[in-house]
Amino acid sequence: MGSTHDTSVQTVVLGITGCIAAYKACELTRALMREGIRVKAVMTEAATHFVGPLTLRTLTDQPVAVSLWDDPGSSPVHHISLAEEADVFVIAPATANVIAKLAQGRADDILTTTALATEATLVIAPAMNTHMWRAEATRANLQTLRDRGAVIVEPESGELACGDVGEGRLAPLEDIMDAVRYELSRSLDLSDRHVLVTAGPTYEPIDPVRFIGNASSGKTGYAIAEECARRGARVTLVSGPTALSDPFEVDTVRVTTALEMQAAVRRAFGDADAVIATAAVSDFRPEVFSSDKVKKGEAPDSVRLVRNPDILEGLGEDKIDTVLIGFAAETQDVEQYARLKLESKNLDLVVANDVSVPGLGFGGDMNKVILVDRHGTRELPTASKRVIARSIADELSRLLCERDIRL
Ligand code: CTP
Fold first, then answer.
1. Distance between CA 87 and CA 139 in Å, rounded?
2. Nearest CA to ligand 1 atom 21
3. Active-site residue flag, 162
4. What is the pLDDT of residues 208-220, one digit of tens each?
5. How many A from CA of 281 to the centre of ligand 1?
6. 281 within some domain
7. pLDDT at 257 over 70
8. Is 340 near ligand 1, meaning CB less than 6 Å away?
9. 112: part of which helix (H) or strand (E)?
10. Helix, strand, coil % (nearest 5) of the chain?
11. DSSP letter string over 146-157?
C-alpha cells in the first residue's frame, strides 16, 4: 500500500486490457471520480487500439501508463510506484489472455508487472467471448486468482461483440463499483489498531537435537498477519519455528518454545487492541532438558512431561477490552468444543476446523472453518488460507467496532 502518496484520498489503479468493452473503462473512471477516488489508468498496448490513452489522461487528470518504457516523470520505477499507490487494483475489462498471465505471475507489460508487484486487492471484471469464458483453462485461472485473494466480478449474459449471445459481457458498472467500494472500505479498516498474532508450532526440546512439536505450518497466522497489515494495522507476529519468510510490514518475533512464546506475547499484549491466536502451542514440555545429546543406548523408557501454560487462557483472564480470537483444531463435535473454548478462555470469537478432514487444515493451503461467537455459529465455504484470513480480518474489524461502541 502507498506510503508515498496523500492517504486522505484513496487511489484506484485501473487496468484496461484489449477488448471491445475497453470504452466502458471511461464510464467506470468517471463513476469512481464522482465518488472522490483518484484514478490512475494502466493500459495494455492492445487496449490502446480500443480507447486512446489521451481520453483516460483527460478524464483522470493523471499520467496514463501504457509501457514499461514510459517516462514516468517523478518516479524512477513507474510500475512499482503505481503498485504502491493502489488501494485497490481494478482490471476492467480483463481479457482471457491477461487473466492467464496474472494466474501464472507473468509480468511482460506494465499492467501485469504492476499487478504482480501490488499488495492491493485485485478486482477483476472479465469480458470475453462465451466459449473463452467457459474454457476449462479460463475457469482454472480464475480459481487460482480467487484462491490468492482476487475478487472476480462475474460477467453477465447478453449480446457479445462477436455476435454470439451468452455469458462474457462485462459486468454492469454498478456491480464493479460495488466491489470496488467494498474493497476500498476494507483497505484501511484496521488503521491505528495494534494486532498481535501468534502462529506456527512450538518446539519443546528434549536435548539439543530432539524436540516435541507438531505439524503446524504457520500459513494461516502469517496470512492473517499480512492481511491485517495490508488493512492498515500495526502487527506483531509472534511465531514458532516455520519455513515461512517474515511477512511484509509486520514486526515478526521468532520464538521456539511455549514459554518463549508466552513471554513475547506478554511483552506485546499491553497495547494490543486484539490478539489472534493461531499458534499450535505444545501443551506439554519435557520436565528435564538434557544439555548433552542423549545417546540411544542410554535413552530412558519414557520422557516425563509437564504442562505448558495456556497462553491465550492467561490473556482471557487478564483482558479488559482487548478483542481475543482463538483457534480450535478438533476431530469431533467441532462446534460444541469451540463454544466451550469461547467460554472457558473468555474469547470474543473462536475459529474452528475439523482437522480430521484430509487435505484441509494443518500444512495445506486450503481450509474450511466455522466461526463461533456469542451471536451464533457461521460456516465459511472451503477456501484458501488467504481468503479465510480475509474473512477473519473482517470479523476482527466488526468486533473492534462493537468494542468501540461499548467503550
Ligand atoms: N493456545 C495457547 N496456549 C496453549 C494452548 C493453546 O495460547 N498452551 C491457544 C491456541 O493458539 C488456540 C487455542 O488456544 O488459539 C486452542 O486452544 P485449545 O484447543 O484448548 O488447545 P488444545 O491444546 O488443542 O486443547 P484441547 O486439547 O483441550 O482441545
1. 27
2. 328
3. yes
4. 999 999 999 999 9
5. 7
6. yes
7. yes
8. no
9. helix 110-117
10. 35, 25, 40
11. HHTT-EE---EE
Expressed in angstroms, the distance from the first to the final Cα of the chain is 30
Domain boundary residue, one of 187, 219, 241: 187
Element (H, E) at 85: helix 78-85
**Statement to judge: residues 206 and 138 lie in one domain:** no
pTM: 0.90
CA 199 to chain centre: 15
For residue 3, being part of any structural domain is answered with no
Same domain assignment for residues 234 and 95:
no
Q: Are 277 and 198 in contact (CB under 8 A)?
A: yes
Q: Do 125 and 224 fall within a single domain?
A: no
User: Residue 99's closest CA among 52, 139, 157?
Assistant: 139
The count of structural domains within the chain is 2
Retrieve residue 169's grid coordinates.
459481457
CB atoms within 10 A of CB 241: 16
Between the alpha carbon of residue 371 and those of residues 43, 332, 392, the distances in Å are: 41, 16, 9
250 lines ligand 1 (CB under 6 A): no
Distances (CA, A) of 26 to 30, 52, 194, 338, 400: 6, 10, 39, 49, 38
Residue 94, classed as helix, strand or coil, is: strand
Residues 350 and 287 in one domain: yes
Ligand 1 pocket, 308 CB below 6 A? Answer: yes
pLDDT per residue as tens digits for the range 155-198: 999 888 878 888 999 999 999 999 999 999 998 999 999 999 99
Res 152: pLDDT? 98
Q: Which helix (H) or strand (E) holds 205?
A: strand 204-207
Residues 141 and 198 in one domain: no
Residue labelled with grid coordinates 511455549: 258
CA of 117 to the centre of ligand 1 (A): 37
pLDDT higher for 323 or 68?
Answer: 323
Same domain, 199 and 128: no
Q: Which of 202, 257, 266, 281 to mutate to test the pocket of ligand 1 (most atoms within 8 A of CB)?
A: 281
Closest residue by CA, ligand 1 atom 12: 327
In a domain, 1, yes or no: no
